[in-house]
Amino acid sequence: MSRFLDREKFMQTENLNLEFSIALLMDENEKLKEVSASLRRLGLMAHHYQSLDDFWVAIKLDPPDVTIVDVTKMGEGKLQFSHHPQVINKEISYIFYYQDSTAFLLNSTYGLHPMGYLNGEISVGAQLKSLLSQKNELHKVTQDQEELKKRVSRLQAHTQKLTQEKIEGRHLRDSVKFVQSF
Fold first, then answer.
1. How far apart are CA 153 and CA 97, in angstroms?
2. Span 136-163, pLDDT tens digits
3. pTM of the prediction?
4. How far apart are CA 163 and CA 167, in angstroms?
5. What phi and psi values does residue 67 have, to the nearest 5 degrees?
6. Which of helix, strand or coil describes residue 76?
7. pLDDT tens across 50-100, in order?
């Protein structure tokens, strides 16, 4: 038990230097407060949406890096989270939040591709830290990959230039030899 409390104390002051935009699709209640507080301890602020309709419109304009979706908010009338074009095209990253009382609603998430699941019954802070650290690592790998692509492109352009210069040098040498042969 003491080890668990020490871990929570550690989480209170830890900032992972993450620069994510976070959206929360949840009702305003204690679970929202707990998730928001855990995000603040990680140095992150979140935009809050209470309705799927508001969220649906907002992410079309400015998609967040990560969305935390309460499974009770998966559908609203004819709107379904799973039917959003950015969800279908895997253009947004999301985490599903649930509690023991709403775990049966996880069935509606099967077939989707979330970053993970956030169980509201256990340490939310530790789970968020783990999930967001994975997202941060993925972001770093993507940035490194983009930088390597740029480097490869520059090297290919440089190689092509050197090859062209070598060909031109051969032509010049052959021309000089031809002229000297007269």
1. 42
2. 888 788 888 889 899 999 988 888 888 8
3. 0.71
4. 6
5. -120, 135
6. strand
7. 999 999 888 888 889 999 999 999 998 888 999 988 889 988 999 999 999
The letter for the amino acid at 6 is D
> Which residues have CB under 8 Å from 32's CB, separation 6+?
24, 26, 48
Q: Is the dihedral of CA 137, 142, 148, 150 positive or negative?
A: negative
Per-residue model confidence as pLDDT tens digits over 91-126: 899 999 999 999 999 998 998 999 999 999 998 999
CA–CA distance from 17 to each of 41, 48, 68, 70, 165 (Å)? Answer: 11, 21, 19, 25, 47
Spatial separation of the C-alpha atoms in residues 50 and 78, rounded to whole Å:
16
